[in-house]
Amino acid sequence: MKKLKMLGGFFALVLALGLALPALANEGAASEFDCNQDPVYARDMDASVKISSRLRNMPCMDESEVIKILVQGQGVKIIAETDGWYKVKTTDGTTGWVGATLLTPGGEVTTTETKTTSTDSSSLVSRLKGYILLQVEKKGEAWYVSPENGFRYFLKDGETAFNIMREMGLGISNANLEKLKAKQSNLLDKLKGKIVLQVEKNGEAYYVNPKTGALHYLKNGWEAFKLMRDLSLGIKNADLAKIKDQTLEQYLLKKQELNQENESSDNNGLGKIVLSGSVADNKVSLKWALNGLTSQNGFKIVIADHENPVYPGDEYHYLSDANVRTDSWSGLSAGTYYFRVCEYLGGKCGVYSNNVKLTITAAAEEEESDGSIALSGSVNSEGIAALNWTLSDMASSMGFKVVVADHQNPVYPGDEYHYLSDANTRTDSWSGLSGTKYFRVCEYLGGKCGVYSNNLSLQF
Backbone phi, then psi, for 333, in 5-degree steps? Predict the structure, then answer.
């Protein structure tokens, strides 16, 4: 029997299955795969669908094909059962297999296949802004309808879903986030269906449920993708076609054009940013003031060993909060540095501040800790690696480097990495990898690593 896999709250439990009993031989001969290896028993009972689920032509995950999508609350007839799966018949006569955990036996059979009805385009878009839609007549493709512009955006996978969340997110203060959690109506009505980013912490993303007003934490790409599909609303192809689609790239391009237009009309080239800074204990503290402009997308703080550092090009910090006016840098090697702050316009900078020249007199490197880091993780069915680690007898005040390579003992600098500046972070995710990869997490000491974790080998 195949190894049990867990694919999150949305997907079925995956089990290896067997040949039909003679009494059900007309259900089809055994395939060349490991499916259909468990006995199949005849059943006759009604059931309802717990959450939107995929109806498959075989009681397998890897080798089966998706026939259609069963939407939450839909009634079906259970006609057979094997280990971990039910064979069902829908009201239109379609038969197929669905994970047993996704059905509630005893539910009433209904004729409802979707939760949307045909209506004119403008009314439909207005009603569905902020919702996640599941294309039930295809293969369950998920779409997010932006409450900002009414376009729908394809949630192809976890990485795409997370990028959409971050790019379309609105910054929110901690105080307003608490008000939102308390469901204060004046704020909730403005933000239903939107994504908010906790800019005064680490930029945590939350989806505001347009129906209930509940906040749903989007921890990472996989969690965002799974959660959005779990909260989806079934829609037919005909109704979906009434909502214009747009890619994330088109959205960002339009946003950049609007920012540039606003910059041109509002500032007339007169806006400026005035930057000042100081060094204490080899830590750089910066602050700035705006004159005649705002920066809705936040700021890029760029650094280089030459005058006029730029973004993209030189090293930077990105601060997404338009109200922030300070930044700090630590862990810099001894030397002279030039800093500038720029108005971020999405992909590039607008107005730059003056140069601030500051000198670090001694290398600001920490001594390597005596503790240890224990790393663990796994790869889900979407090919996304979820990593987590714990510290023992140590802290890492400058954050972590998560390094990866196709050989053991990856290092920084040298191999590919993620830099996580938050010292309290204990998780990370990776996607788009293939083959066998080795991961390590290290204590970051500014320009180099201190303590490394164990090697973690994962297969993609």
Answer: -75, 160
